[in-house]
Amino acid sequence: MTTPVDRLRTAWKTGGRLALHREAESLASEGTTHAVLDEAINTLLLEARAADAGDDTEEEILGVGDRLSGWCNLDRRITIRNASSTPAANGVPAPTDRPVSPA
User: pLDDT for 80-94, tens place per residue?
Assistant: First the structure.
């Protein structure tokens, strides 16, 4: 099974300017939780830093993180699909896991 970080890593390797953003949006629309997506973005960021990928690379990855956490214009935010629209696992609904908008 492909993990969220694997999917983000694959998108990043395509070299497409918006590929990472689009994959993060896809993961969010599929119901990947905010915490899991945030961790995947941070993992990718740490890998880029370890590879000394440079400031531009870091800024691109941080831009996706900013969109997820809400540090951007409202219309650019990555919205996690509402847990109430996902099927319950073993009859227990998943908790809502949405980013909190800055006040």
Answer: 886 554 444 434 344
